[in-house]
């Protein structure tokens, strides 16, 4: 984003009441700011050596060293009053200042170049699905609020690994630690003690975490927090990284520095001013800091605070070229879009300050759960990627909105078992489709009897496998079964020949024990063109399937029961009264359901009675 050449802006007040660009007017707050970040529990988080290596490789490991930073709330409030939310700079007597991308890389030790910190849109209903997918557990109703989850829940569930942890346990715990880390240090929310799970897709692949511009996103949040702080009737909670802002003030304005500092620590620079929460003597009040800032001169500023840094100790992901840090661009982090104008504070880069160019107007957007900010800020994101020399690659993780919705109680084990069953069913279906090809390839091959028997059993298991039903389907099936059982007029289905357990089965290779047999797919388990396999005498049934139903009745006569006990009492009484011979040789007796069939087979076609025999 190239600055447009304009004359130096005037100092008059704008008609709409806002401060003019370049104005030194300040807002006066009527309350002391309260930082939103909470990093106390990070020191109590127990990490293994393997987890610590993952955190260090992610480029966010230096953030853990900045925890416990002492925040001077009076100093923080007095500096925020100097901030201009139209230029994103702090206005002093005749000059402007602001934290830059280079300051973020040195003070916090995190990458400021790479992909923009953004992802697909999420809603409040997707919080449980996202936590289940990336953390293995989902927070309860009391552990989440307005799409945010409590930091205390993350600490309580994942701060220590269980005994004999699995790979998933280590991954879930490490990812929860990183979410706690960025949520409490870089992106604190107005609701203290909460963090948004929208960063989880960016933390899914540990190998690609360092490829995101976390420093640029942290600077965008800091600019937004400063702009909100100078808004009339704004909240007293300070958004953004108070550690970053306090360390930056100490680096550039020596009169604000505490009496002591850690000389041994060079990176991250915030550790020079971190004393673990101990006091540093008498603190000034807000009125005293206001007076000091009103009298601040150019000579009172340290314009080159990093001259003593050894470039050899700076990690590669923290190095940012001057042409990147000194170029106008947009800082993006989901819905937050802030303008970055380093040409208005050239002295921080060792350059002469020229004319002040005008800053483009833009609208600050609030969070909307259904908005895809990658589309809304497509042009700004492309400008940033062109500046840092990277191409935006969407996340290859699971689609958040397509993750299965599960109940809160017992959802972890249920989800794992259900996914495993679905995957196994898909695998069996694939193998079932490949079986005809395998049969054709092995047909005629001479195989040991053990191998042939094994292939026979595997083929049978694959073809007879049926996927397990869910609990809802089981309940529906049981209910329908009860309904059928209550109906007294329903008759039990007679078994087919193929279901007769007494019919002989093809033993396959068992008949050739201890010999080499040629491979041949058995008739009992061969599937042709996706049809139902025919068992034994079903071949005869297949040959006679073109016959009329009454012509095939003799096929089931032998397998049907002929005892009197199988007939209802009313039918036995009518048979005894009629005196008709009871024989099973070519004659079958029936009830009222077969009257129509008897009329077709009667000699005259009419006058058939229930007791008349059927001649086959």
TrEMBL record:
Residues 483-494 have a biased composition (Basic residues). It comes from the Eukaryota. GO terms for biological process: meristem maintenance. Residues 1-24, 465-508, 555-590 are annotated as: Disordered. Residues 559-568 have a biased composition (Low complexity). Residues 60-387 form the Aminotransferase-like plant mobile domain. Residues 1-15 have a biased composition (Polar residues). Transmembrane segments: none annotated. This is Aminotransferase-like plant mobile domain-containing protein.
């Amino acid at each position: 984003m190239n600055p447009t050449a304009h004359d130096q802006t005037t100092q008059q007040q704008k008609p709409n009441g806002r401060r003019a660009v370049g104005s030194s007017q300040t807002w006066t707050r009527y309350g002391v700011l309260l930082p939103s970040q909470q990093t106390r529990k990070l020191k109590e988080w127990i990490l293994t050596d393997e987890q610590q290596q993952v955190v260090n490789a992610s480029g966010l490991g230096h953030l853990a060293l900045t925890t416990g930073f002492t925040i001077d709330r009076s100093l923080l409030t007095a500096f925020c009053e100097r901030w201009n939310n139209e230029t994103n700079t702090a206005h002093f007597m005749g000059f402007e200042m602001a934290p830059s991308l280079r300051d973020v890389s040195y003070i916090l030790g995190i990458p400021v170049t790479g992909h923009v910190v953004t992802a697909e849109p999420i809603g409040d209903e997707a919080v449980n699905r996202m936590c289940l997918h990336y953390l293995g557990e989902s927070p309860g109703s009391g552990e989440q609020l307005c799409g945010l989850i409590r930091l205390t829940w993350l600490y309580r569930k994942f701060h220590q690994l269980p005994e004999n942890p699995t790979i998933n346990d280590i991954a879930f715990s490490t990812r929860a630690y990183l979410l706690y880390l960025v949520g409490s240090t870089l992106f604190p929310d107005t609701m203290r003690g909460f963090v948004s799970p929208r960063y989880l897709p960016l933390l899914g692949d540990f190998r690609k975490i360092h490829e995101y511009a976390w420093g640029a996103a942290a600077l965008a949040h800091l600019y937004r927090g400063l702009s909100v702080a100078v808004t009339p009737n704004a909240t007293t909670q300070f958004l953004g990284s108070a550690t970053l802002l306090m360390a930056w003030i100490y680096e550039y304005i020596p009169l604000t520095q505490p009496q002591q500092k850690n000389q041994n620590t060079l990176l991250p620079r915030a550790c020079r001013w971190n004393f673990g929460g101990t006091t540093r003597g008498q603190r000034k009040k807000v009125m005293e800091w206001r007076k000091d800032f009103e009298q601040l001169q150019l000579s009172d500023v340290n314009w080159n605070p990093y001259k003593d840094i050894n470039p050899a100790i700076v990690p590669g992901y923290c190095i940012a070229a001057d042409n990147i840090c000194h170029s106008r661009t947009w800082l993006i982090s989901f819905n937050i879009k802030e303008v970055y104008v380093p040409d208005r504070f050239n002295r921080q880069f060792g350059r002469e300050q020229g004319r002040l160019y005008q800053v483009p107007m833009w609208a600050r957007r609030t969070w909307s759960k259904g908005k895809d900010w990658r589309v809304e800020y497509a042009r700004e994101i492309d400008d940033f990627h062109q500046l840092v020399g990277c191409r935006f690659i969407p996340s290859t993780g699971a689609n958040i909105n397509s993750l299965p919705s599960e109940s809160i109680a017992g959802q972890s084990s249920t989800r794992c078992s259900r996914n495993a069953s679905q995957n196994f069913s898909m695998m069996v279906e694939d193998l079932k489709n490949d079986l005809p090809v395998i049969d054709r390839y092995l047909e005629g091959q001479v195989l040991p009897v053990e191998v042939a028997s094994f292939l026979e059993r595997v083929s049978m298991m694959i073809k007879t496998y049926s996927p397990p039903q869910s609990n809802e389907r089981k309940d529906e099936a049981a209910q329908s079964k009860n309904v059928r059982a209550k109906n007294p007029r329903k008759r039990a289905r007679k078994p087919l020949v193929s279901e007769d357990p007494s019919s002989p089965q093809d033993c396959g290779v068992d008949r050739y024990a201890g010999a080499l047999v040629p491979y041949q797919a058995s008739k009992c388990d061969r599937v042709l063109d996706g049809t139902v396999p025919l068992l034994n005498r079903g071949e005869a049934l297949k040959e006679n399937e073109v016959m009329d139903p009454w012509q095939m009745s003799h096929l089931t006569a032998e397998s049907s029961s002929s005892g009197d006990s199988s007939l209802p009492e009313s039918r036995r009484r009518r048979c005894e009264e009629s005196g008709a011979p009871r024989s099973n040789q070519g004659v079958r007796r029936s009830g009222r359901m077969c009257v129509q069939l008897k009329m077709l087979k009667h000699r005259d076609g009419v006058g058939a009675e229930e007791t008349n025999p059927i001649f086959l």
